[in-house]
Design brief:
The chain is mostly helical. The chain contains 7 helices and 2 strands. It has a domain of 104 residues: Arc Repressor Mutant, subunit A, CATH 1.10.10. Helices cover 56% and strands 5% of the residues. A two-stranded antiparallel sheet has the order 1-2.
Length: 196
């Protein structure tokens, strides 16, 4: 009999094949599972509430666009073009696109039907014929006079009323949300909401 044997050594029957100790599975008590389920349900309800807020925002914007169309015969984005031309007579297409946060090609597409309807006019610069300045016609000014406020749309107007800190936080949260979405169209950033 070997008297040097360690009495604390585990017998082979207590070991897995290969000598590894058997790990006991952690059991989640009924109370812990209930709390996790409750948190999951609370998160789900909150997500549905936030989704409802998005629906409210988009529905409100859509109703405003319809009101603009009914009162003026132009789209919400086209009315925003007219508003920018009233605010900055002689603006160029590139400046208009920057002011609206859209692609230059999108701005050009918005301008074309307005020009055909006689609501705006293009004037070439006498110094540089490549430069085109945009301005309202009398019909364009009359259209604005009939338009419901805000001329830029309810969403751009509401965003412009927020402070810098709120806008930054909102931008960060929406960027995170956009990354979590599996289907994204980055070109959509340069298209007015009313044209989607």
């Amino acid at each position: 009999m070997n008297s040097n044997r360690n009495p604390k050594a585990k017998s082979p029957s207590r070991r897995h094949a290969g000598g590894a100790s058997r790990a006991r599975p952690r059991r989640v008590g009924a109370g812990g599972a209930a709390r996790a389920a409750s948190r999951h349900e609370a998160d789900r309800r909150l997500a549905i509430t936030v989704l409802g807020q998005f629906r409210l925002i988009f529905r409100s914007a859509k109703k405003h666009f319809q009101w603009v169309q009914d009162r003026t015969g132009v789209s919400g984005a086209q009315l925003w073009v007219l508003a920018e031309l009233r605010r900055r007579p002689g603006i160029r297409v590139t400046e208009l696109a920057r002011a609206m946060g859209v692609h230059q090609s999108t701005a050009s597409n918005l301008i074309e039907p307005l020009e055909k309807r006689g609501l705006i006019q293009r004037d070439r610069s006498s110094q540089d014929l490549r430069v085109v300045h945009l301005s309202l016609t009398r019909s364009g000014r009359d259209t604005i006079a009939r338009a419901p406020l805000p001329l830029e749309g309810v969403l751009p107007d509401a965003l412009s009323s927020l402070g810098q800190a709120d806008l930054f936080e909102l931008q960060q949260r929406l960027e995170k949300l956009a990354k979590l979405m599996k289907v994204r169209d980055s070109a959509g950033k340069g298209i007015p909401l009313g044209e989607m």
